[in-house]
Design brief:
By secondary structure, the chain is mainly alpha-helical. It is 60% helix and 6% strand.
C-alpha cells in the first residue's frame, strides 16, 4: 500500500465531488451545449478509469472506445464516478508494494498494445482525471462560474488543517 497513492485518490475523489457541485450551476438553456461537453469530458475520464480498473483487477471490460455512445445524465454520471472513486480508494488501500511494481500487459480500445506497472496505471488514471477536470473548469469559467479550486495543496490543507499552523514544525501524518 502506498501512502501517497492513498492520498492522491482521496484528493481525486474530493476534486470529482467538488466538480459535480459546480456543474449543477450550468443549468440554463443557453448553457446546454457546454453542459453536454462537460459531461462528455467527465464521462470520458470515467470510462478510462473503468478500463484501467479492469486491467488492474485482471478482468475484461466491455468498452470499445474511451467514451460511451450515449451521454449519461449528470446525476447518473455523478453516482458512477463516486462508485469508481470508491473502487480506487479501496484498491490503493489494499494493494501491496510488490503488486504495485508488477507490470501488466493490456490492449487499448484502439487495438494498440500497452504495458504499465500497476503504480503507473494508478498514476495515469489520477492525472488523466485532473487534466479533464481542468478542461471542465475552463468551460465553467466561460459562464463566470468560478471553477473548483481543486489543487492537491488545497486538498491537503483542507483535509489536514494543522498544516496551516505557520511557524510550527508539525510532524507529517503517516
Amino acid at each position: 500500500m502506498s501512502t501517497l497513492l492513498r492520498t492522491v485518490y482521496r484528493y481525486h475523489a474530493w476534486a470529482n465531488n467538488d466538480l459535480f457541485g459546480k456543474l449543477e450551476m450550468l443549468a440554463g438553456e443557453s448553457q446546454k451545449d457546454e453542459r453536454h461537453s462537460a459531461i462528455r469530458l467527465i464521462n470520458h475520464y470515467y470510462v478510462v478509469a473503468q478500463i484501467f480498473a479492469a486491467h488492474l483487477s485482471g478482468t475484461n471490460h466491455h468498452y470499445e472506445s474511451d467514451n460511451t455512445v450515449e451521454t449519461p445524465t449528470l446525476s447518473e454520471l455523478r453516482a458512477a464516478v463516486a462508485a469508481s472513486d470508491q473502487w480506487y480508494l479501496d484498491y490503493v488501500q489494499n494493494v501491496s508494494p510488490a503488486k504495485l511494481s508488477e507490470s501488466v500487459p493490456f490492449t487499448f480500445t484502439d487495438g494498440d498494445k500497452g504495458y504499465m506497472t500497476r503504480e503507473e496505471m494508478l498514476t495515469h488514471v489520477a492525472l488523466h482525471g485532473g487534466y479533464h477536470r481542468g478542461e471542465v473548469g475552463r468551460i465553467l469559467s466561460i459562464f463566470s462560474i468560478t471553477p473548483p479550486w481543486d489543487t492537491f495543496a488545497v486538498f491537503l490543507h483542507q483535509s489536514e488543517p494543522s498544516r496551516r499552523q505557520q511557524g510550527d514544525k508539525q510532524p507529517m501524518p503517516a
